[in-house]
Amino acid sequence: MTSMTLNKCDTGNKPIMDGVNYLSTLAARVEEAIKPHSIRAFASKIDVSEGTLRRILKGEDPKLSIIERIATEAKVNLLWLITGEESDIGDESALHPVVKLDEFNDAFVLVPGYHVSVSTGYGAFNDQMQVSRHLAFRKKWLEYKNLEKSKLAVVFAKGDSMEPTIHNNNTILVDLSDKKLSEGLIYVVRLGEELYAKRLQQYLDGSVRLISDNKEYVEQVVKPDEMEQLEIIGKVVWIGKDLT
């Protein structure tokens, strides 16, 4: 899935973009914006180190304040620089970054992406959750999906057991407030010391099945007397596309 510019009438109830390619497309727009300056010269103009600008161009998640400075110095639309989309406001307003930053904050929410691998295969344990990037989602889309921004997290899938629904390295948006098991939906769960993204199904005896979409993988069953090992972290609500 590639990043694309959408018409204003199409975007109200959709997430901003797919998380997998967001930082690479942002880097490409920054590279376009700073031309014809050298990296060193432009970094000096916006009062950041050359190394900082190079890391942004390599796909590192930048601070919004730095992106604002890039937009101001390059005289480009801040909304376009962040999202790849054009604003309804005329080109002249690109010289006023405060207005553009407000416009972005009015329309979008930055959801933290954690340095956590959620296995869709044999499990991946992470003992520290570190914010590694932020992804932008439309406020209108979050409202449409009845999602609370402070209860959301982005994590990254590893493995192939949930294919074709979730692919290796896919970005996953998780609603941390929704821990109630609804049969057949996908959840991020902790089983013992491993994290998984799986469909869940509960039996009448209280046991829970962890089901893979890839039929080459055998389902896991957590028995009632093993429930202390199972924790529902949250429901998966987006993988570059709506799930529900």
Automatic annotation (TrEMBL):
InterPro entries: Cro/C1-type_HTH, Lambda_DNA-bd_dom_sf, LexA-like, LexA/Signal_pep-like_sf, Peptidase_S24_S26A/B/C. Keywords: DNA-binding, Transcription, Transcription regulation. Residues 38-81 form the HTH cro/C1-type domain. GO terms for molecular function: DNA binding. The keyword Acyltransferase does not apply. It holds the Pfam family Peptidase_S24. It comes from the Bacteria. This is Repressor.
